[in-house]
Amino acid sequence: MRNYLKSVTALCLAAGGAHAGALDRTGQSVDVLFEDGRYVEFSFATISPNLSGTGSVLSNGIGSGDISPSYQQYGAAYKADINDRLSYAIILDQPFDASVDYPTGTGYFAAGSSAEYDSVALTGLLQYNLNNGVSVFGGLRLQSAEANATIQFNAPALGLNLDYSVDAQRDYGVGYVVGVAYEKPEIALRVSLTYNSEISHENDTSETLTSPLPLTRTSVTEFETPQSVNLAFQTGIAPNTLLFGGIRWVDWSDFALTPSLYQQVTTGSLLSYREDVFTYTLGLGRKLNDTWSVAATLGYEETQNNLFTNLGPSDGQRSIGLAAIYSQGNMKITTGIRYVRIGDTITVAGAAAPAARFENNDAVAIGVKIGYTF
After folding, report:
1. What domains are defined for the chain?
2. Neighbours of 3 (CB within 10 A)
3. Of 259, 357, 245, 270, nearest to 307 (Cα)?
């Protein structure tokens, strides 16, 4: 029963990390380490956000249109035992990602602006099981990251006329993961604490400025994807019933993507955040029979009430998720759906604040994960 019930925690992965704090997408879970024997899994999620705002100072009352296109996420993981005490896992995911595309022809001050940030990570972990249910684990993470953007801010009456593009080519960096866990199988209890280090990148960057004056520049843009800490737990609370959840802290206040020409012209960052982000999750799972289990989760991120850039206009969230897990033989299939209410925010452009208000936005994520033990 313990092994069957613990699969309900897969909901968080199966339904994706739709609009978690800042660029966070997967939560960097290490749950695959706790699968029994040799195990492999593949996951897919599609996320459909609805994100729009209304111009304030720069384009009074004009709507931006939906600026956040649908996107997909893929992941895979493999875990195997070396002996009674040692095991290892390999995890492939897309930990940080963003895509913004302002429709043209709306009259909105940022119409035609777009941006993409993409990362892919390959993590190798080794776990050592001590006595009395305690285990320690750690490893290395190889991560690639690239970004591009086109910024078109047009509000001549207020002296804002910016036509700029940037391409930061893919770069690779290495970080590390360390953690500790405690398990008590007879009550399906597990508590794990995981630290993910920051990863430094140095991206070869090409920038082009058309307005207010023509300039081009090639340089190296240095930034770090943030360090984070995950506290995850699960425990049986009644026969065939599992309570699970976690807290994730991400050091977003130290993140800033600042190409040199953009900083020179605007005195700001292309994308940055003023506060760290805490994400809270609580869920309940129930085994219905030998084939089916179900689960429900609630998620919460506090609203920070800060000004945000126009490439990342969301502040906090509340979410609810549902999942069903089908198990047959050595295979289990988890399907999940998650609804996210995206927090309202105010954006800034240059000296103009508020540039726009983003309110009443949401997202829906649907995911599938297939796992096989052999």
Report:
1. 2-373 (2.40.160.60)
2. 15
3. 357
